[in-house]
């Protein structure tokens, strides 16, 4: 109703959810990329993502990555280009990419590392608390991928 300096908002100003791009993919870790290397990626990502207003989760297990990224479209686009040029992983398989006006699924996670066994639970929790229709639809798509897609071996070892 009021902006940050206390003036009433005009009727044309939308104070709703931000425009967010999300990108979800899985990939295979390059040879030699172990737990320590992944912790280094997380450390770097948390610092860099704060500056870019990007949030998300990264799963690593059985040599496979699964990552959910969300943030301003221009920043996410730049990060996707960097990810494609990063020799620490290969065989990047996009699972979901969309631009929508919605709330963040992981507002407090600059990039949280989640165990492979927990990813279903993390997504299920997000689904249970999600109110935004677009978020609900995206989460259902990802959970479906987990059930029968390339992540099958990662989650059900
Ligand atoms: C699996 C994986 C996940 C990554 N996640 C992020 C991330 O969330 N944020 C980030 O800034 N860099 C991340 N990186 C590192 C980027 O690929 C890249 O090295 C970094 O953004 C620097 O890119 P630049 O050299 O193009 O500036 C990740 C790398 C890997 C292998």
Features:
39% helix; 5 helices; binds flavin mononucleotide; 27% strand; Alpha-Beta Plaits; 5 strands; single chain; five-stranded mixed β-sheet; 157 residues; alpha+beta
What does this structure look like?
It is a single chain. This protein has a single domain (19-155), classed as Alpha-Beta Plaits, CATH 3.30.70.100. It has five helices and five strands. It has helices at 35-52, 73-84, 119-129, 133-148, 152-155, and strands spanning 19-29, 55-61, 64-71, 89-101, 112-115. A five-stranded mixed beta sheet has the order 4-1-3-2-5, sandwiched between helices. A hairpin with a 2-residue loop joins β2 (55-61) and β3 (64-71). The radius of gyration is 17 Å and the shape is globular. The chain starts with 18 loop residues before the first strand and ends with a helix. The structure holds flavin mononucleotide. Flavin mononucleotide (FMN) binds next to α1, β3 and α2.
List the helices and strands and how they pair.
Layout: E1 19-29, H1 35-52, E2 55-61, E3 64-71, H2 73-84, E4 89-101, E5 112-115, H3 119-129, H4 133-148, H5 152-155
Parallel strand pairs: 2-5
Antiparallel strand pairs: 1-3, 1-4, 2-3
Bound molecules: flavin mononucleotide.
């Amino acid at each position: 109703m009021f902006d940050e300096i206390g003036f009433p908002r005009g009727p044309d100003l939308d104070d709703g959810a931000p425009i967010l791009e999300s990108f979800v993919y899985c990939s295979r870790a390059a040879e030699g990329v172990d737990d320590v290397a992944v912790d280094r990626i997380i450390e770097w990502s948390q610092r860099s993502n704060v500056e870019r207003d990007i949030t998300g989760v990264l799963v690593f297990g059985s040599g496979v990555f699964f990552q959910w990224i969300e943030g301003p479209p221009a920043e996410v686009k730049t990060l996707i280009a960097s990810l494609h040029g990063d020799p620490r992983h290969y065989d990047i398989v996009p699972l979901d990419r969309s631009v929508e006006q919605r709330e963040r699924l992981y507002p407090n996670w600059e990039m949280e590392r989640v165990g492979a066994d927990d990813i279903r639970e993390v997504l299920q929790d997000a689904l249970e608390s999600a109110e935004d229709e677009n978020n609900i639809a995206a989460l259902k798509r990802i959970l479906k991928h987990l059930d029968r897609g390339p992540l099958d071996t990662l989650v059900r070892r």
